[in-house]
Design brief:
Shape: globular
Strand content: 15-25%
Strand order of the largest sheet: 6-7-13-11-12
Mean pLDDT: 96
Structural class: alpha+beta
CATH class of the largest domain: Alpha Beta
CATH architecture of the largest domain: 2-Layer Sandwich
Radius of gyration: 20 Å
Number of strands: 18
Helix content: 25-40%
Number of helices: 7
Order of helices and strands: HEEHEEEEEHEHEEEEEEHHEEEHE
Number of domains: 3
Bound molecules: flavin-adenine dinucleotide
Distance between the termini: 10 Å
């Protein structure tokens, strides 16, 4: 377990950064599941240089730092996170290179903003983001996507800040993308992605995104805190189908529930805790394994102290 920040660490962080910093910040405020304990320091570097300075400071003082996106795929345990949680919220750059299909986007831009900018430029390739929440940085790290595609289909380069404070650029082939996965090191902060998009009429983009959104709206739960799919789909099957077939739809533990609308969405109905959700996850995993011999793997990232 990592050590808590000392008063000296807190003073050094406050003095070194241009961006925002909040101590003992509840992670429930920064995750779509609306649960999880506090992070010792929640930091929003003002720009990439600020993120590099933060990395160097953390490395010099032996402080753990953890990249945070928009918290739409994050389950923080009730004991919270030690060290520094680095948010990319302030990294909002988004530009098109001349008249080309090359788009350079910073990690804190929301996936929705990227999609709407590409649509406005009449550039296709990111239609798959319709209805997928989160930041571009989190989307790249997770290789987020839908049946229309995923980040790996459009990325040509990824830039990240290493724990030593260096800016590292990786070509697509060096990122190790797979289904909802990249090999990008979990302790590097992705700060920018370069995408290759292609000309496409706005009406065609709009029509495809509308149909994706309609399809999602009809199948997905509404009005409850969630992180989308909790488990990855096993090869050739769907986690939701298996969970439903195991008779687990609607199962509740405390304030957490297997959504009656979509069995792969395990939701917080209001006052759920991370401990309850983790218990529910374990129960679902074990029942599916016992019934069908399938070892479901988590898509949601579980972090923090118990
Ligand atoms: C309603 C709903 C629907 C969803 N539908 C889909 C879907 O259709 N397809 C899909 O793929 N996902 C879906 N998700 C899950 C989620 O939207 C994606 O995984 C998203 O890409 C996570 O991005 P984020 O910015 O919220 O990352 P976070 O949840 O903040 O972080 C996720 C992981 O990425 C890491 N990370 C985040 N930012 C960075 C960074 N800048 N550098 C390095 N590492 C980073 C974090 O450390 C963490 O391990 C859904 C979630 C919700 C709530």
């Amino acid at each position: 377990m990592a050590a808590r920040l000392t008063d000296d660490d807190r003073a050094a962080l406050t003095g070194a950064l241009r961006g925002e910093i909040r101590f003992d910040e509840p992670m429930a405020r920064h995750t779509t599941l609306r649960l999880g304990g506090p992070v010792d320091a929640y930091v929003e570097p003002a720009d990439i240089a600020d993120a590099q300075a933060l990395a160097r400071l953390c490395s010099a003082r032996g402080i753990v730092w953890r990249p945070l996106g928009a918290g739409s795929n994050l389950l923080v345990r009730d004991g919270g996170l030690r060290g520094v949680g680095v948010s990319t919220r302030a990294l909002r750059g988004l530009r098109r290179e001349g008249d080309s299909g090359v788009v350079v986007v910073e990690a804190g831009v929301s996936t929705g903003k990227l999609l709407s900018a590409a649509t406005g430029w009449e550039l296709g390739g990111v239609e798959f983001l319709g209805g997928v929440p989160g930041s571009v940085g989190g989307g790249i790290w997770m290789n987020a996507g839908t049946y229309l595609g995923e980040f790996k289909d459009v990325l040509t380069e990824v830039a990240s800040v290493t724990p030593a404070g260096e800016l590292r650029r990786r070509a697509h082939a060096e990122c190790g993308f797979a289904y909802r996965h990249s090999d990008l090191p979990p302790d590097e902060l992705i700060v920018e992605g370069t995408l290759q998009l292609r000309p496409r009429p706005r009406a065609d983009i709009d029509a495809e995104v509308r149909s994706l959104r309609d399809r999602r709206r009809a199948r997905e739960p509404h009005g409850v805190a969630n992180a989308g799919s909790i488990f990855k789909n096993p090869p050739g099957d769907f986690a939701g189908r298996l969970i439903e077939a195991a008779g687990l739809k609607g199962l509740s533990i405390g304030g957490c529930q297997v959504s009656p609308a979509h069995a792969n969405w395990l939701v917080n109905t209001g006052d759920g805790s991370a401990a309850e959700l983790l218990e529910l996850i374990a129960r679902v995993h074990d029942e599916v394994q016992a019934r069908f011999g399938v070892d479901l793997q988590l898509e949601v990232k579980v972090v923090g102290d118990g």
